[in-house]
Design brief:
Distance between the termini: 68 Å
Largest sheet: none
Order of helices and strands: HHHHHHH
Shape: flat
Radius of gyration: 22 Å
Low-confidence stretches: none
Mean pLDDT: 79
Length: about 140
Amino acid sequence: MSRTVTYCVTIVVSLYCSSCNLYKDRFSYVQFKNEKQSWIDSYKYEAFYGCIKGGVGNDSLRVILRRKDLFYPNSEIGFKYIDDARARGKAVIEKTPPPYIKIDLGEEEWFEGKNYISFTCLNYYASRDLERLARRKYKESGKEE
């Protein structure tokens, strides 16, 4: 009995430790991994920025970002691809359906004209579709050079 308990505890502890290690390695602060990944990250960032810009317009959030944010540090991506990425991001936010929210009487004005902008843009940035598209555009940019 004690041998089985020891075995189970060992397995649980090792699984716990390995899962913690995997989690720590997922996020990293800005650093250039390699040219390809930096280009892909740049394209994805531009799509995200286009999405946010399309969603909030000339709102104070963008004014604050312009004053405080350095934006994405990689300048390897050409204007053709920046424009393409921003247009795709803007298209995503424009196609976002209106939210389905149960509204109590008297709260209609508060919800009027609002949508899940940041949530939609973050999900698009993290999507496999955008990742695949950015990889395809990177290959396309290599053929042009």
